[in-house]
Amino acid sequence: MVAGLIAHLKGRLDATGLDHAVIDVGGVGYLVGCSSRTLASIGPIGEAVMLHTEMLVAEDFIRLVGFASASERDWFRLLTGVQGVGARVALAILSALEPADLARAIAAQDKAMVARANGVGPKLAERIVRELKDKIGGVEIGGAGVLAAPTGASADAVSALLNLGFRPAEASGAVAAAEEELGAGASLDALVRLALRKVTR
């Protein structure tokens, strides 16, 4: 399964179901799988909507998954990188836990919190927190906790570096350093350029 090339969809919300939304983009209805958290936040049917997306491609299907935020999409990518976690299970986890709560659970190795999600048993929850601990970076024992998940231009910059093949911890650290140097209002282009210089030094 590999990610495709559709980064986001912007159109009109045509319909929603238990685990999906239909986005009308120029007369074409895109069926997009979503977490319940994303479905609850995208607004009423008939209104304009924009979803960050991940396109999953396998031998027997092509599927779009949509997210209300770039950070939720990035967590989906991390989760589906764990053996035994497919798109359905990753969406169940993101339905049960906000990205910040998920980050805290992994930092604390709290497998019981991850196991709250439908379809996640104790063994899989243990594998998730163990494998992702080294990938989220930014954990201070007894201190302020996990670094906040990036949002806005920062999240898009992290996503850009992930697409270039950098590891999540590398991408997050380089973008955080770039944002600290450039200031909170830095553009996506400036963040990516500086982050790339930092990560390739």
TrEMBL record:
One Pfam family from the record: HHH_5
Domain of life: Bacteria
UniProt region (Domain III), positions on chain: 151-201
Signal peptide: none
Xref: InterPro entries: DNA_helicase_Holl-junc_RuvA_I, Hlx-hairpin-Hlx_DNA-bd_motif, NA-bd_OB-fold, RuvA, RuvA_2-like, RuvA_C, RuvA_C_sf
Ribosomal protein is among the record's keywords: no
Location of the Helix-hairpin-helix DNA-binding motif class domain: 77-96, 112-131
Gene3D superfamilies: 5' to 3' exonuclease, C-terminal subdomain, DNA helicase RuvA subunit, C-terminal domain, Nucleic acid-binding proteins
Alphabetically ordered keywords of this record: ATP-binding, Cytoplasm, DNA damage, DNA recombination, DNA repair, DNA-binding, Helicase, Hydrolase, Nucleotide-binding
Listed SMART domains: HhH1
Chain spans, region Domain I: 5-68
Subcellular location: Cytoplasm
Record GO terms (molecular function): helicase activity
UniProt similarity note: Belongs to the RuvA family.
Known function: The RuvA-RuvB-RuvC complex processes Holliday junction (HJ) DNA during genetic recombination and DNA repair, while the RuvA-RuvB complex plays an important role in the rescue of blocked DNA replication forks via replication fork reversal (RFR). RuvA specifically binds to HJ cruciform DNA, conferring on it an open structure. The RuvB hexamer acts as an ATP-dependent pump, pulling dsDNA into and through the RuvAB complex. HJ branch migration allows RuvC to scan DNA until it finds its consensus sequence, where it cleaves and resolves the cruciform DNA.
Listed NCBIfam families: ruvA
Recorded domain comment: Has three domains with a flexible linker between the domains II and III and assumes an 'L' shape. Domain III is highly mobile and contacts RuvB.
Subunit details: Homotetramer. Forms an RuvA(8)-RuvB(12)-Holliday junction (HJ) complex. HJ DNA is sandwiched between 2 RuvA tetramers; dsDNA enters through RuvA and exits via RuvB. An RuvB hexamer assembles on each DNA strand where it exits the tetramer. Each RuvB hexamer is contacted by two RuvA subunits (via domain III) on 2 adjacent RuvB subunits; this complex drives branch migration. In the full resolvosome a probable DNA-RuvA(4)-RuvB(12)-RuvC(2) complex forms which resolves the HJ.
Protein name, per record: Holliday junction branch migration complex subunit RuvA
